[in-house]
Amino acid sequence: MIHFTLNGEPQVLALDPVTPLLWVLRDHFGLTGTKYGCGEGTCGACIVRLDGEPVKSCSTPLSSVAGRSVQTIEGLSPDGRHPLQLAWVLEEVPQCGYCQSGQIMMAAALLARHPRPTDDQIAAAMSGVLCRCGSYARIRRAIHRAAMPEIQFG
Amino acid sequence: MVDADSSPRLTRRDLLRVIALSSGGLALGWVWPARAGTSETPAPSQFEPNAWINLHADGRIQLRLARAEMGQGVMTSLTMLLAEELEVGLDQIQIEPAPIDPVYTNHLLGEQATGGGTSTRDGWETLRAAGAMARTLMIAAAARTWGVPESECHAHRARVYHADGTRSLGYHELVTTAAHLPLPTTVTLKPRSEWNLIGTEQPRLDTPLKVRGAACFGLDVRLPGMLYATIERCPVIGAEIRTWKGQAARATPGVIDVFVVKQGIAVVAETTWAALSGRARLEIECRPLRNAAVTTKHLRARLHLGLDGRASVALSEGNVSRALAESALEIEAVYEVPFQAHACMEPMNCTADVRPDGCDIHVPTQSPAATQALAQRLTGLPPERIRVHTTFLGGGHGRRRELDFVHDAVELSQRLKRPVQVIWTRADDLQHDYYRPMTLHRLRAGLDATGVPLAWFHRVVGPSVLARRDPGRIRDGIDPLMIDGATSLPYRFAHRRLEYRRADTPVPIGLWRGDGHSHNAYVTECFLDELARAGGQDPLALRRTLLAESPAHLALLDRLAEHWAAPLPTGQGRGLALVEAAGSRLALLAEVAVEDGRVCARRFVAVLDCGQVVNPDAVRAQIESGIVFGLTATLKGAITFSDGRVEQTDFGDYPLLRFDEMPEIESILIDSDAPPGGVSPIATPAVAPAVANALLALLGRPFRSLPIRL
């Protein structure tokens, strides 16, 4: 039995502990916002937060979340109005959108660590999440915007 | 009322054009073909004036989307065309996916499909006319209700107003009256000066879903009782399974069945992870085939043979061989373009539910009509029993015009009598793609004494994409897709010859963002810069000389001139490329540097003339994504072969451009009254030549193969 917290709710699962968190989220909980892109931790589409830190859920076995707190894109905000989500809308970041959950969760972890990140800090964090549509410049703008919501959302 | 699909002589487009010319109105030659001529009375609670619009008495306004949203923004831009003429706000409508019906045929592709930068071009007249037709009916219904002339009424935000300022009726209140009015046979479109939506920045309708993780992509489909499946294929091109052992796979917890299918060995399970785990325990051995010896080196050698000897002549003007012989300076070069994968972020997948009485297919596809046709062939069900639900697409780039993943899902669901979701792994996706073809190119040019090229020779050598996809379009040995862009070269040469030599390989090939332009723009624009250098000419000035009779192209270069002349930091090179594709024209300037032995693209300036712009920010986004897609193919990897198999398996050996490699991009949109051109395919082909030309300027040597290696 593995106990953990998922988007604020306590959960208990009796699954093979090697099962990657990605498939637990997608197939057991129906939380399909977290995406499968490569299964090897190279693309970042599956990023979620584990105790606030970004992890690639495709390479995170269920066993390693025991007693810890997992946050997915569905749990980022109750109404889709997290500053990052608002900024993402205003900057029109997504194109196909498939990688964007991973991008936003990585950005959320970045802002938790650096509330006013520099371009270099943004680049260092976000270079781990691939986007085939090239939304990178808009992501940078959106993160800056989200980092100063009192100014940008008036 | 004319039913376009039963009219033998005039297609719907012909009708639209003919009437548009003669009366200033647009003829409406289409309805739901299935309902044309029937006496079916519309339900009073709703009214469908045409195939795109459904107005409800409860106030809902449903607009149908018949194209795939794969990041290019059609969900918003096509809806804007309908809403503009219907006089409704984007905040007042609901979007629902269109079913498969001939009325939704994309006339530029010849089927109900999305790709090649065709959606806006195809929908430009039709969708506006559909909106205008419904608005005309709403106004007619209000005028009848009030007993006033229609000319005294106008519509705004789903309400009709009378000119006296005292009366108005919502569309929902007019549904019942309008449903009993005769459909108009002509409509008048709004003049540009009255547009409220077209040409304005509109927020994308899919963005709120995508930032919440709530957009349903193919892999997000969940059906009751659904199983998950994955298929192990032979890695060698065209090989078949000889022997296999499935006991360990079958014993994996959660695995339900393991069996042979046409494409390989299928592992079916209760969860995705169980299917993947079971698959990892399969042992397969493939029958050795002649392709087992294929390497990139062999393929290159095969194409090399085509550089000489016979070829099909696609275009011949003047006398190139004589002009070359008489020229002051003759230059020749051979260029090489490799296979490329699509690497959509969402790997290929499909979910099918085949039942005795019908079939539902949930799939991220660019080709829903072909999907239905394949399912019909596989199941024997009539088409009206086969419903295709197009999900959001996690990238398309031409890959999702194919049906191999549909075949997987339909076959498995049919056999298991359960809904099945087939998932391709990243390795499957990279190793079993329909690749952008490898090509070789021989170019020759002759310069006069002043350095101006007078003669231009280009031979394209490569496999034919259409040989598999649409062989009927191959004429006189020429695959038009393979010479796209080389044929329509905008430059004026006194003598020009274009040849195509088909050289097929065992490698599966297909459509890829920009198609033929992606290789031809690279070689022609690079070779032009080689000529400029040899003739002592500035690359932009030489293009101006060769485009003297093309004001539209000159206008693009004029807008770039200031950037071209601006001071450049030491250690950087600047290059230029011009592409004409999908009815649009683009001039792209690249600024690059070399750092630690690697090429860094620092900045691009794109000047685009795509006719009338529907949603400007979506166009800029397409320029950005086209550049990034092209930059990956220019600087990163390629698909290569050894032992008959693709060598690349993941993003480690097939890397994509990363965040920290993103160049600065400035987009300039030319204002135009011309009908819209396509945008998705145009930037990608311009990147490789702009970057290679910048490196030629910086390092003094040409870069004649991709990806660029210093």
UniProtKB/TrEMBL annotation, chain A:
It holds the Pfam family Fer2_2. InterPro entries: 2Fe-2S-bd (IPR002888), 2Fe-2S-bd_dom_sf (IPR036884), 2Fe-2S_ferredoxin-like_sf (IPR036010), 2Fe-2S_ferredoxin-type (IPR001041), 2Fe2S_fd_BS (IPR006058), Beta-grasp_dom_sf (IPR012675), Diverse_Oxidoreductases (IPR051452). Keywords: 2Fe-2S, Iron, Iron-sulfur, Metal-binding, Oxidoreductase. Residues 1-76 form the 2Fe-2S ferredoxin-type domain. Gene3D superfamilies: 3.10.20.30, [2Fe-2S]-binding domain (1.10.150.120). It comes from the Bacteria. GO terms for molecular function: 2 iron, 2 sulfur cluster binding; metal ion binding; oxidoreductase activity. This is 2Fe-2S iron-sulfur cluster binding domain-containing protein. It comes from Thermochromatium tepidum ATCC 43061.
UniProtKB/TrEMBL annotation, chain B:
It comes from the Bacteria. GO terms for molecular function: oxidoreductase activity. Pfam families: MoCoBD_1, MoCoBD_2. Residues 212-290 form the Aldehyde oxidase/xanthine dehydrogenase a/b hammerhead domain. This is Molybdopterin-dependent oxidoreductase.
